[in-house]
């Protein structure tokens, strides 16, 4: 302000309407000690960060930036009216994980001050300064689709009751639900093992409910049951008259109560216990709220004394509270490794972080906030013994909550973020200088790497931290503490991956991992530990772990992570066949851990890391196995529905019989198209095996296979042409892929047998037994008819499929030995390296000699028809569902428009980039537009869209699918450029696969497991809905 105006006695309008002054006025007093004047202090050299600290001091325990388990990041823009959500995705062009374009949510609020995800990340609550609440529900089929389930525009505004604390109750239906996780990795006898623990969810068990507290101490709870609208129930905590609070913290306890801590503007902290009891299952009956005071005036603001420098002490006015939290008691009580209960658990802990405030007023000073002191108190359940005089009264001994102080912790800088990491054995603290450090929550000592450590429980033990940022505000760590998100001064989200504290590697950003180095070994163990924890949480993703690995370790080091992944999670019985009591190989397709491990193995592949041909083979092998597993679950659920017991007659009314509910047509479409893809894969495998035999018996018909003359995309790794190496050899020798192929063939055979389908190709004729007319229109009839059509189209019988993949039909045991660790190591090496081990290299030859050829072979028995196999040979893009573009060409196909050749201009106009770099479909060379490849829906295994439909040409049949290219899913028939640009598809953030965006929300008539399958890509990556124009590349 102009000094002349000050001398004239004019009003300082800027200072009068300063936001901080208004906040302090609303509090009714200062938030510091008596002599502290926050608004009269000059900001330091980082105004944005200082302003953030001021918000922490005045706006309560609310967050403006939060990261959910499904990978979604939500933050409130500076205008206070816009909430944006985004998530990470892998850009296969650059090989880097980037932030997806944010999507804005219309909050209809004036000034949002805080937000929070529920425990599964499926719902987002947003609160504004007047206590109004908006709730957004995440659509299950895409990570950037939201439904506005509660609009706070009609809430009663209360300007004096600004929210200062928010907590979602644990998402649990009943007390029988179990919560599981991996507590730590333990190294025993040279092998890392998991300490797998489980426990129960703390009551109250509410399906959808959250609580928030206002400045006057009013406790509010919004709850709903059975999808009905949110209802409000409130309670005034027994606070002193005219008390005003700055911060509130809440936490659930094993007794089913909520511990509530309130920080008063005077500096006192009050503790309450609120019980929430749902007395009825009725969706309209509100819960009963009761409150009990635990402790009043727990502590005042601590005095500041610097024993090293009296001048500093004189300069400090006092402390201001910036963070208040309650770290809950651990929910885990049972150790599966030792088969015993865990040692006594740490009780709940109240944590208050205070930053010092100095009165230095020159602009060159260090700012208004200085060092930090963290005060802690533990909540103990104490049972008091009554006087002997009252021993026979029959009354029970009272149990009270006792608050015990713990030693203080001092930091040299103010705290901007304090976050407890799952499962509660590490605390991440970010200070004003941008440094993030991990602490032990029980001792508040810094976690540091130890070369001799045999136990890993936190990423803080592995010598990594985050690059300090001088302009970062509103920091938040990812669920696994692998990526740090913050907003810049412009309000944009920035992501920071960790770095190593030492820089011994040649590349300062990437480290070459050496498993013989104890610190590197611990780092790998921490990655596996974080991944394992993600497997036990609903909706959880591990994209932050993948992005951290890609940004910190060299590509050559990935194989060490892959090897330890499988050796830590699995035992020989999970990978080696044998008797049922020694092997669990048949259970592998149903294991969620196996599925997640394969997805993690798949996600470690980065096409821009110059992978070797064997790494490409391992990537394609994993993709096919993931698709096989996805199809097994889909078709397996159908098979189970066919074996449901017939409903019993009602004895009181024998004429009535409840008919079983048929599967919906949309689900049956999904099943039949997956069956067609499975048979195309079988055709591809059998054709490759027969081609190997032809090279051996008629070598003069073939050019000598050579890596210099044949591209990798054609040999698929079988450079010698003898079946010892390559993708087909991997599929036939890796026990997981062979087991998946065998289980799928048995499912086909079981359905065909139930429908009495019998097909044989003896004497060059198609001999078949048709499906009974009584099955027409039934689920069994339709599925069996699809299997029958595929058998006739491809010249394969279901008996032939079982014989090809069942180990008992082969005299050679394929190099396996039950219970042998060497077999386990060979299996793991083949999966992660793409190189077939020597004991397995004769498998293809054995199949040809003992199973296919000869009078007793499949061809002699009429189980295979070579001519039909060749006629039904599928297109490679269909078998691999476009993933061969990633392995061969280095990136996913994307939409492209050739400006030189639009419709009507003599050319096709539209196409897709793709191909294998060897001049295959979709690649433009010498200015010529080559025919585009078909893009396939990863779920439905149907053409999504192709060049012919875009160019307004008649639809053509995509090879091997039996479907017209323009009549598939998603985009369907596009009739103009603008329709193409505005069309929407779902794209996977991890692998780039595409799927139909018009997916109906799965209802109760669909199999239960299908919901999770449709929510994620085949590779377990999240779907995002985007317009074609968003991913458009103009030539």
TrEMBL record:
<keyword id="KW-0805">Transcription regulation</keyword>
<feature type="region of interest" description="Disordered">
    <location>
        <begin position="643"/>
        <end position="664"/>
    </location>
</feature>
<comment type="function">
    <text>Component of the Mediator complex, a coactivator involved in the regulated transcription of nearly all RNA polymerase II-dependent genes. Mediator functions as a bridge to convey information from gene-specific regulatory proteins to the basal RNA polymerase II transcription machinery. Mediator is recruited to promoters by direct interactions with regulatory proteins and serves as a scaffold for the assembly of a functional preinitiation complex with RNA polymerase II and the general transcription factors.</text>
</comment>
<comment type="subunit">
    <text>Component of the Mediator complex.</text>
</comment>
<feature type="compositionally biased region" description="Low complexity">
    <location>
        <begin position="644"/>
        <end position="660"/>
    </location>
</feature>
<protein>
    <recommendedName>
        <fullName>Mediator of RNA polymerase II transcription subunit 16</fullName>
    </recommendedName>
</protein>
<dbReference type="InterPro" id="IPR048338">
    <property type="entry name" value="Mediator_Med16"/>
</dbReference>
<keyword id="KW-0539">Nucleus</keyword>
<dbReference type="Pfam" id="PF11635">
    <property type="entry name" value="Med16_N"/>
</dbReference>
<comment type="similarity">
    <text>Belongs to the Mediator complex subunit 16 family.</text>
</comment>
<dbReference type="GO" id="GO:0045893">
    <property type="term" value="P:positive regulation of DNA-templated transcription"/>
</dbReference>
<feature type="domain" description="Mediator complex subunit 16 C-terminal">
    <location>
        <begin position="983"/>
        <end position="1024"/>
    </location>
</feature>
<dbReference type="InterPro" id="IPR048339">
    <property type="entry name" value="Mediator_Med16_C"/>
</dbReference>
<dbReference type="GO" id="GO:0016592">
    <property type="term" value="C:mediator complex"/>
</dbReference>
<dbReference type="Pfam" id="PF20719">
    <property type="entry name" value="Med16_C"/>
</dbReference>
<keyword id="KW-0804">Transcription</keyword>
<dbReference type="InterPro" id="IPR021665">
    <property type="entry name" value="Mediator_Med16_N"/>
</dbReference>
<keyword id="KW-0010">Activator</keyword>
<feature type="domain" description="Mediator complex subunit Med16 N-terminal">
    <location>
        <begin position="157"/>
        <end position="461"/>
    </location>
</feature>
């Amino acid at each position: 302000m102009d000094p002349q105006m000050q001398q004239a006695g004019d009003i300082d309008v800027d200072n009068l309407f300063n936001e901080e002054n208004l906040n302090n006025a609303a509090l009714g007093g200062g938030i510091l000690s008596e002599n502290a004047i926050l608004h009269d202090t000059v900001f330091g050299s980082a105004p944005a960060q200082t302003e953030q600290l001021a918000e922490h001091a005045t706006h309560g325990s609310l967050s403006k930036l939060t990261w959910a388990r499904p990978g979604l990041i939500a933050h409130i823009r500076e205008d206070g009216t816009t909430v944006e959500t985004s998530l990470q995705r892998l850009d296969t062009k650059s090989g880097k994980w980037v932030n997806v374009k944010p999507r804005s949510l219309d909050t209809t609020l004036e000034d949002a001050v805080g937000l929070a995800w529920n425990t599964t990340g499926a719902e987002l609550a947003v609160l504004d300064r007047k206590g109004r609440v908006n709730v957004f529900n995440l659509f299950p089929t895409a990570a950037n689709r939201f439904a506005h389930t509660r609009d706070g525009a009609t809430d009663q505004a209360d300007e004096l009751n600004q929210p200062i604390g928010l907590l979602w109750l644990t998402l649990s239906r009943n007390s029988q639900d179990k919560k599981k996780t991996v507590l730590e990795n333990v190294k025993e006898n040279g092998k890392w093992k998991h300490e797998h623990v489980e426990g129960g969810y703390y009551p109250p068990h509410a399906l959808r409910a959250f609580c928030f507290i206002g400045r006057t101490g009013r406790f509010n709870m919004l709850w709903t049951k059975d999808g009905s609208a949110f209802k409000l129930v409130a309670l005034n905590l027994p606070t002193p008259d005219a008390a005003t609070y700055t911060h509130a913290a809440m936490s659930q306890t094993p007794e089913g109560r909520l511990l509530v801590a309130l920080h008063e503007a005077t500096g006192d902290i009050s503790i309450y216990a609120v019980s929430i009891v749902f007395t009825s299952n009725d969706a309209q009956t509100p819960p009963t709220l009761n409150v009990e005071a635990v402790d009043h005036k727990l502590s005042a603001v601590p005095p500041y004394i610097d024993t090293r420098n009296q001048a500093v002490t004189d300069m400090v006015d006092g402390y201001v509270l910036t963070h208040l939290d309650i770290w809950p008691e651990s929910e885990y009580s049972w150790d599966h490794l030792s088969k015993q209960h865990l040692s006594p658990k740490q009780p709940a802990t109240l944590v208050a972080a205070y930053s010092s405030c100095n009165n230095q007023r020159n602009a060159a000073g260090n700012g208004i906030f200085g060092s930090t002191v963290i005060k802690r108190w533990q909540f103990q359940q104490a049972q008091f013994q009554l006087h002997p005089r009252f021993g026979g009264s029959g009354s029970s001994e009272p149990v009270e909550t006792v608050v015990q102080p713990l030693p203080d912790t001092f930091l040299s800088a103010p705290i901007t973020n304090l976050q407890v990491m799952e499962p509660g054995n590490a605390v991440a603290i970010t200070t004003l200088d941008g440094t993030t450090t991990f602490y032990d929550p029980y001792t508040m000592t810094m976690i540091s790497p130890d070369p001799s450590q045999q136990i890993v429980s936190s990423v803080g033990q592995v010598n990594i931290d985050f690059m300090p940022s001088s302009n970062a505000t509103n920091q938040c760590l990812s669920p696994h503490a692998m990526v740090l998100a913050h907003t810049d001064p412009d309000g944009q989200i920035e992501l920071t991956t960790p770095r190593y504290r030492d820089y011994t590697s040649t590349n300062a950003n990437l480290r070459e991992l050496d498993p013989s180095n104890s610190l590197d070994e611990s780092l790998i163990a921490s990655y596996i530990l974080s991944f394992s924890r993600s497997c036990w949480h609903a909706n959880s993703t591990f994209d932050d772990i993948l992005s951290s690995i890609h940004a910190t370790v060299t590509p050559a080091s990935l194989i060490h992570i892959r090897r330890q992944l499988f050796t830590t999670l699995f035992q020989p019985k999970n990978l080696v066949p044998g008797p049922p009591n020694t092997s669990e190989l048949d259970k592998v397709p149903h294991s969620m851990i196996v599925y997640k491990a394969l997805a993690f193995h798949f996600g470690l592949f980065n096409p821009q890391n110059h992978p070797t041909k064997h790494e490409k083979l391992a990537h394609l092998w994993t993709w096919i196995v993931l698709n096989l597993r996805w199809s097994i679950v889909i078709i397996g659920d159908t098979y189970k529905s066919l074996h449901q017991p017939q409903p019993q007659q009602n004895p009181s009314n024998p004429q009535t019989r409840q008919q079983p509910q048929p599967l919906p047509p949309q689900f049956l479409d999904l099943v039949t198209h997956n069956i067609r893809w499975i048979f195309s894969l079988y055709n591809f495998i059998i054709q490759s095996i027969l081609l190997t035999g032809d090279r051996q018996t008629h070598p003069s018909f073939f050019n000598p296979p050579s890596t210099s003359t044949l591209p990798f995309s054609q040999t698929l790794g079988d450079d010698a042409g003898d079946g010892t190496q390559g993708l087909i050899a991997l599929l036939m020798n890796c026990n997981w892929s062979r087991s998946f192929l065998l289980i799928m063939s048995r499912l086909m055979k079981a359905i065909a047998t139930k429908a009495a389908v019998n097909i044989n190709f003896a004497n060059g004729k198609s001999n078949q037994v048709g499906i009974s007319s009584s099955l027409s229109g039934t689920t069994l009839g339709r599925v069996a008819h699809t299997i029958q059509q595929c058998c006739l189209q491809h010249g394969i019988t279901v008996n032939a499929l079982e014989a090809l993949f069942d180990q008992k039909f082969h005299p050679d045991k394929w190099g396996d030995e039950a219970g042998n660790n060497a077999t386990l190591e060979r299996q793991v090496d083949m999966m992660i390296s793409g190189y077939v081990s020597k004991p397995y290299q004769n498998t293809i030859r054995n199949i040809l000699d003992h199973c296919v050829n000869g009078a007793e072979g499949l061809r002699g028995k009429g189980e295979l028809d070579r001519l039909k196999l060749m006629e039904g040979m599928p297109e490679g893009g269909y078998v691999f569902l476009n993933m061969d573009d990633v392995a061969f060409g280095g990136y996913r196909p994307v939409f492209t428009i050739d400006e030189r050749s639009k419709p009507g201009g003599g050319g096709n106009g539209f196409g897709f980039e793709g191909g294998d770099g060897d001049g295959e479909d979709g690649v433009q060379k010498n200015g010529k537009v080559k025919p585009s490849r078909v893009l396939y829906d990863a779920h439905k295994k149907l053409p999504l869209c192709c060049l012919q439909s875009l160019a307004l040409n008649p639809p053509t049949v995509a090879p091997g699918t039996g479907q017209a290219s323009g009549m598939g899913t998603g985009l369907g028939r596009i009739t103009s450029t603008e329709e193409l640009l505005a069309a929407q598809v779902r794209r996977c953030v991890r692998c780039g696969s595409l799927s139909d965006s018009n997916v109906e929300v799965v209802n109760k008539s669909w199999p239960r497991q299908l919901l999770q399958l449709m929510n994620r890509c085949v590779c377990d990556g999240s779907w995002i809905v985007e317009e074609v124009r968003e991913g458009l590349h103009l030539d």
